[in-house]
Amino acid sequence: MKAYLVFEDGETFQGEWIGTPKTVSGEVVFTTGMTGYQEVMTDPSYAGQIVIFTYPMIGNYGLVAGESESHFPPCTGVVMSECYHEKELGNWLDQHGVPGITGVDTRAVVKKIRAKGAMRGQIHSNPIYMELREVLPDSIQWVQSVSVDEPVFYKASNPHAPHVLLIDFGYKASILGSLQQLGCKVTVVPWHWSVEEILKLHPDGLLFSNGPGDPKALIPWLEGWKSLAMQLPTLGICLGHQVLAMAFGARTKRLPFGHRGSNHPVRNQQTGEVWITSQNHGYTVCEDSLDPGQWIWTHIHGNDGSVEGLMHQIYPVTTVQFHPEAHPGPSDAAGLFHQFVEQVMEKKEVKGVG
Ligand SMILES: NC(=O)CC[C@H](N)C(=O)O
């Protein structure tokens, strides 16, 4: 059955339906990883987006138990050149109501996005862009749709384990897993929790997660997050990086077509070391908005020179635009979790003495 990827400028690309044959709209983005389609499709940061895979064959190693980053595929739709094991992937997408298209000339689509910048599109059964009557969800609604509603507690076997609060804008399971592997007790809390609600749980450290949408939508909450980051060791990943940077005075802007893939080079500006990192973001912190009295600009993107990591001058706050938890992608940056947990342990010991 024919399906179309229709851009808001009217250009269309033809393919065949896969998953649930229903019309959806979203920002059309592309990811360049050669593997990791399952992790990408289940990454909550893709909520509201139609994801194009540049690797020509998707589905070739099936769906692997334990490799998903959330319980369902939160992306709005998927577009691929060829789908192998089409039944398995198609049925799974259909079970979760996610539409997709296969047999699309993905190279041509990506060339278009690279030339014209990110734009909205639809997956549709007709080659026309439909003006939708319903109001599409905004960034806050996307975050709300993938964040927990109630706190979720993950115990540790050691009763003296450090307690990390994971502020959930749509966290990837691998972030929780990275903290648990290092022996942390973790509580995942709703993104909008107040300072008082958070401090009541007596955390030793905070991790601000990745998540969908425009970080500017979260400006009303920055003051509270700043006061928390001034009190506790804090790590921010992707959206978490963006909101913490803004909380301490920086601005964010949209990238022309984003960084999404498993091989983005990032240079540590202090040591010169280069990591190959996993990335998925459309916004970035504006370099010229970084107050040198607040932030040390630690990591820079090797391709376009954009801000990839920050460390606060005074408080133990570290933030990265890339994904140290990988999944998909290399774990060059996994040491950041060790550093963070060390800071959290130090804080816990100091508290214990006091
Ligand atoms: N993975 C993320 O946290 C993405 C952050 C933000 N939604 C962006 O696209 O830039």
From TrEMBL:
Instruction: Please report the stretch or stretches of sequence annotated as the Carbamoyl-phosphate synthase small subunit N-terminal domain.
Output: 1-124
Region described as CPSase: spans on this chain? 1-162
> Which Pfam families does the entry mention?
CPSase_sm_chain (PF00988), GATase (PF00117)
Q: Does Disulfide bond show up as a keyword for this record?
A: no
Tell me the GO molecular function terms. Answer: ATP binding; carbamoyl-phosphate synthase (glutamine-hydrolyzing) activity; glutaminase activity
Q: Catalytic activity annotated for this protein?
A: hydrogencarbonate + L-glutamine + 2 ATP + H2O = carbamoyl phosphate + L-glutamate + 2 ADP + phosphate + 2 H(+); L-glutamine + H2O = L-glutamate + NH4(+)
Q: Its Gene Ontology biological processes?
A: 'de novo' pyrimidine nucleobase biosynthetic process; 'de novo' UMP biosynthetic process; glutamine metabolic process; L-arginine biosynthetic process
Q: Which PROSITE patterns match?
A: GATASE_TYPE_1
This protein's UniProt keywords: Amino-acid biosynthesis, Arginine biosynthesis, ATP-binding, Glutamine amidotransferase, Ligase, Nucleotide-binding, Pyrimidine biosynthesis
Q: What does this protein do?
A: Small subunit of the glutamine-dependent carbamoyl phosphate synthetase (CPSase). CPSase catalyzes the formation of carbamoyl phosphate from the ammonia moiety of glutamine, carbonate, and phosphate donated by ATP, constituting the first step of 2 biosynthetic pathways, one leading to arginine and/or urea and the other to pyrimidine nucleotides. The small subunit (glutamine amidotransferase) binds and cleaves glutamine to supply the large subunit with the substrate ammonia.
On subunit structure and binding partners, the annotation says: Composed of two chains; the small (or glutamine) chain promotes the hydrolysis of glutamine to ammonia, which is used by the large (or ammonia) chain to synthesize carbamoyl phosphate. Tetramer of heterodimers (alpha,beta)4.
Q: In which family does this protein belong, per the annotation? A: Belongs to the CarA family.
Checking HAMAP family in the record gives: CPSase_S_chain
Name of the protein described by the UniProt record: Carbamoyl phosphate synthase small chain
> Which source organism?
Marininema halotolerans
